[in-house]
Write a structure and sequence with these properties.
Elements (H helix, E strand, L loop, with lengths): L2 H16 L6 H12 L4 E4 L6 H11 L4 E5 L6 H5 E6 L4 E6 L6 E5 L6 H4 L3 H6 L1 E4 L2 E4 L5 E6 L12 H4 L4 E4 L5 H11 L5 H6 L9 H10 L7 H13 L6 E3 L3 H17 L7 H12 L4 E2 L1 H5 L4 H11 L5
Parallel strand pairs: 1-8, 1-9, 2-5, 5-8
Antiparallel strand pairs: 3-4, 6-7, 10-11
Helix pairs in contact: 2-12, 11-12, 11-13, 12-13, 13-15
């Protein structure tokens, strides 16, 4: 799949997604970056900003299967992965596969479930396999997890462990729409063109098939990242481990994620090479959820996004 074909697919994907998701262009682009690199994303936003609808729409537009799990305190690991059920008629056990066996999995309010249940996703996210009663099953090659959480409601939640957060390539922050976009939403709600209705009645068309998505992902590896820019990228990640306000910095997996994200951002912009701006644009969504601030700086109101911007300003950009 050449660069022109990629741009055609992207343009059509944006056009079809925009029929349902009003505004949120930056969020859509980051979600496409996650999908095209074969990774996972943590979506953070208050209720009602279309987090679930975004993932459902993208799955439909890209011709992939979709499953949703509502995480609750009583959810068990077997509810996610599946379990063995004894068949009395056949006198044998058979495997009932769980919702994790899909292409696009929406883990809704993932921090509502305890750590034991959250950890059921770790093997699936990292290895794309699931173990049920000591037997291992392969997940689809395009398996992608979009996990959502509410950033302001912490009562009855279980914070994600660092090992789990590190599996998410990007943290995508989904805010409230602009006034103009919310006015369009209000107008559509008064008619039969409400976003949910548009998706339900088939107004949104798939733009590619699963096979095309695999070919598109392979094309991302052809995007050039110069040696001096690669060194700059590594220095940015390593600087998070030395910054005075950071208790725990980003690990090597963050370096890999930033490389893939910068390449995908370049491809989406229509280029076959990475620029320093690609690295800077993807630094915050890649690194923010992987860092832990020292308590004294957190009390002073310093934010992780601000720390990352300080690091970017301190490191010289290669010419």
């Amino acid at each position: 799949m050449n660069n022109d074909k990629i741009q055609e697919v992207l343009a059509r994907a944006r056009q079809e997604t925009a029929k349902v998701i009003i505004g949120q262009q930056d969020v859509i682009e980051k979600a496409l970056i996650v999908i095209f690199t074969g990774n996972h994303a943590l979506i953070e936003g208050v209720p009602g900003v279309a987090k679930t609808l975004l993932v459902r729409t993208l799955a439909h537009v890209l011709g992939c299967e979709f499953a949703r799990i509502q995480f609750t305190p009583d959810l068990m690991p077997a509810d996610i992965t599946g379990t063995s059920i004894y068949n009395l008629q056949r006198n044998e056990f058979s495997v009932a596969k769980g919702p994790v066996f899909t292409s696009f999995l929406l883990a809704d309010e993932i921090n509502r479930a305890p750590a034991k249940t959250q950890s059921a996703l770790l093997q699936a996210m990292q290895e794309r396999t699931v173990t049920i009663d000591r037997d291992t099953y392969q997940l689809p090659a395009d398996f992608t997890v979009f996990a959502t959480q509410n950033p302001i409601e912490y009562e009855g939640t279980y914070p994600l462990p660092e090992a789990q957060k590190d599996r998410f390539m990007l943290k995508i922050t989904m805010g409230a729409p602009e006034r103009a976009d919310e006015l369009v939403l209000a107008q559509r709600t008064m008619t039969a063109e409400a976003p949910e209705a548009m998706l339900a009645k088939g107004a949104v068309q798939p733009v590619i098939q699963r096979e095309d998505l695999i070919a598109l992902r392979a094309q991302m590896n052809a995007v050039v990242l110069r040696e001096e820019l690669l060194g700059y990228l590594v220095d940015v990640v390593r600087a998070t481990r030395r910054h005075e306000s950071v208790l725990v910095g980003a690990g090597p997996r963050a370096t890999q994620s930033l490389i893939m994200a910068a390449r995908a951002a370049a491809a989406i912009a229509g280029r076959d090479f990475v620029t320093p701006d690609d690295i800077k644009a993807m630094a915050t969504p890649v690194l923010e959820h992987r860092l832990i601030l020292r308590p004294e700086f957190e009390i002073e109101g310093l934010g992780l996004a601000e720390v990352i911007q300080q690091i970017l300003q301190q490191i010289a950009v290669p010419r």
